[in-house]
Structure formats: structure tokens, C-alpha cells
Write a sequence for this structure.
């Protein structure tokens, strides 16, 4: 599948089969995170992988958007390790984490898995439940698994603004 097809086919999967994801597929997703571009290649991302049923149950205390996925990645970033732009002090940590997470979602799609980027969670509860150190910012939860046969694509998935509303050439 070419990239355009892959990007269009990917959707936020909110219903998963109760099937364990194979370690090879988890490794494939993590390797895509590893090669994701980050500012100055600082690679400030830290990823917690949840596969244990008890740990996944603890996730329910942090968000209602776990979708009973058999696998969840918690994507974090260390602002102390990320690039900081000298002109204005802008820290790239969240941007880097977003790029990493996007790579993970697209890799998952390419190998037959579904994902949903979840930002609606209690970060303090995630930190407590999974012993995440204070130096890490928790950016996203990524429930992952085999899409259920009844997984529905959100109607807004294919609704886009017009290209000329998004793009300006040489001026804004």
C-alpha cells in the first residue's frame, strides 16, 4: 500500500477484538517510533507498553477512552532532553512526541492493527498508576489492537476543510 492509501485508510479505532497483539508487531511499532524524526535527533520520547490485563484495568482509572484495547502505549517525553530553540526558548518535546505517535499509528495500520490517539486522560492518575517519573510529560495514550469487525469509522473522519482554506502561498 502506498503512503496516501495508508494515511486515508487509518482511522481512530474505538472497538477492538479480544486478541493479544504479537510481540513482533509491538516491536515493529516501537521500531517505527525509534526512527521517527525529532528535533536535532534528541529523541526525548519514552514509551510505556501495557499488555498485562491488570495494568490495562488500571488504565480505566485514568480515562474512559481505553476502548478495552489489548495493548496500550503511553507516550511520554522528557523536556530536559529535547531541543530548545535559541531564538525564543520553544521546546520541541511535544512536537517530537506527536511525530513519534503518528509514526506508531501509521505503522500499526500498515500491519493490520488499529489505534486511537487519546488525549482525554488524567495525567496525574496515569503518573501514579504507572510510576511515571516527574521529569516525563505524558503526551498521549495509544490504545492498540486488532479492529473489531464492528468497529465504526467516525462520520467526521472524512470531513476536511478545503485545501485553499489551509494553504497560502507566499503570504498569510
Amino acid at each position: 500500500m502506498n503512503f496516501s492509501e495508508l494515511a486515508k485508510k487509518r482511522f481512530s479505532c474505538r472497538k477492538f477484538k479480544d486478541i493479544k497483539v504479537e510481540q513482533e508487531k509491538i516491536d515493529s511499532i516501537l521500531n517505527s517510533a525509534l526512527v521517527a524524526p525529532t528535533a536535532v535527533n534528541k529523541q526525548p520520547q519514552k514509551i510505556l507498553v501495557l499488555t498485562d490485563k491488570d495494568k490495562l484495568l488500571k488504565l480505566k482509572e485514568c480515562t474512559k477512552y481505553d476502548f478495552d484495547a489489548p495493548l496500550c502505549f503511553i507516550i511520554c517525553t522528557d523536556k530536559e532532553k529535547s531541543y530548545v530553540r535559541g531564538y525564543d526558548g520553544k521546546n520541541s518535546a511535544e512536537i517530537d512526541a506527536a511525530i513519534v505517535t503518528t509514526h506508531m499509528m501509521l505503522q500499526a495500520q500498515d500491519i493490520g492493527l488499529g489505534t486511537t490517539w487519546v488525549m482525554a486522560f488524567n495525567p496525574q492518575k496515569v503518573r501514579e498508576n504507572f510510576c511515571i517519573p516527574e521529569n516525563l510529560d505524558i503526551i498521549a495514550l495509544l490504545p492498540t489492537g486488532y479492529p473489531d469487525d464492528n468497529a465504526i469509522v467516525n462520520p467526521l473522519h472524512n470531513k476536511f476543510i478545503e485545501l485553499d482554506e489551509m494553504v497560502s502561498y507566499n503570504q498569510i
Remarks:
- The longest strand covers residues 136-145.
